[in-house]
TrEMBL record, chains A, B, C:
This is Microsomal glutathione S-transferase 1. The gene is MGST1. GO terms for cellular component: endoplasmic reticulum membrane; mitochondrial outer membrane. The keyword Ribosomal protein does not apply. The lineage of its organism: Eukaryota, Metazoa, Chordata, Craniata, Vertebrata. It is found in: Endoplasmic reticulum membrane; Mitochondrion outer membrane.
Length: 155, 155, 155
């Protein structure tokens, strides 16, 4: 039987596991942020969520959209669209035997860029802060995909 | 050469594989549910989808939104936002050598909470049914992330 | 210590890595396509994105939705909803020791169907082009889930 705990002795894999867990936890914060704004601004998407604020027609006025909430939701969806490729490609890249320092540089750049992307989106900072942080994360993932396909293509 | 089939002899990993497959299959049901409501209620997002119901201006009236369809879509997006972190963090957690019974408790709680979340969202059940099931799934994922980072942090 | 680079000697796993990387890269193209249409059609979701096109009230007219942009966004979300289950179930399926030619057939069908889905969505081609390509990808993922649970169920 393979002792799976040994997989975690591989330094590249351990680094990937750490950075992936950090960026996924950050993404989960977006759910809490949405919930926070929905509660404090009384902006809901479902009738059953606002019954504590009033009955019948009185409750319906809380079924609306709000700029602040929509902004958090757009940031959350953008996270999903970019973190899913990072997870898939990053996992396979980590298993393809890359150089440790190159791999860590990729992971750090991605995680840093995505955190800065969230800050730029929620503050909001003027462009090109958000655009630039998006493209850094995007480029990091494509760079890992390129190295993976160059070394290990099997179709 | 590593015999990869041996990885599946690891009990924690087999349990993760089973629960992950079950919850992903449940998430895929949401696509079918959306399609079902779009067909039976004749509510479409694309002009090419409603040509069988009429031509020209007559078809355009089916390009609309519907409470029931939007509810399923929100439940689906909430699934994505929560199952993606579970998959990433759960996979790495499974490889980090956790105690079998602790790991299975995490997986069962998460899968149970997410199935109950879908039931609460689609029925809909009054709050706090949906809120509670959301937070159980959320807490399980954070608990796995915490154990992973505590034991294996490598930055 | 396990030499992780040996995992990539497994042919099924290498094939999965290649096809997963290709389909994730295709999904990332959807972000670039959205950005392209937003720029060329001057359709933005955030006030900070359109300041270069005018000041104050003049800029606000670019905060709108556009059929073309919404179409790309729907295709992107549909990709996410279908590629996430493929990644999770496909990874576990690849590790469960399937027959090489069966596995490659699954991966090729999925990747082909999803690429055709995107072409059908963005052109747009008349139905049932998009519907059919959706159901092929859906069926492939369910087929892998079925084989995984049949052989390796551990609850």
């Amino acid at each position: 039987m393979v002792d799976l705990t040994q997989i975690m002795d591989d330094e590249v894999f351990m680094a990937f596991a750490s950075y992936a867990t950090i960026i996924l936890s950050k993404m989960m914060l977006m759910s809490a942020t949405t919930a926070f704004y929905r509660m404090t601004r009384k902006v809901f998407a479902n009738p059953e969520d606002c019954v504590t604020f009033g009955k019948g027609e009185n409750a319906k006025k809380y079924l609306r959209t709000d700029d602040r909430v929509e902004r958090v939701r757009r940031a959350h969806l953008n996270d999903l669209e970019n973190i899913v490729p990072f997870l898939g490609i990053g996992l396979l890249y980590s298993l393809s035997g890359p150089d440790l320092s190159t791999a860590i540089l990729h992971f750090r750049l991605f995680v840093g860029a995505r955190i800065y992307h969230t800050i730029s989106y929620l503050t909001p900072l003027p462009q090109p802060n958000r655009g630039l942080s998006f493209f850094i994360g995007y480029g990091v993932t494509l760079s890992m995909a390129y190295r993976l396909l160059k070394n290990k293509l099997y179709l």
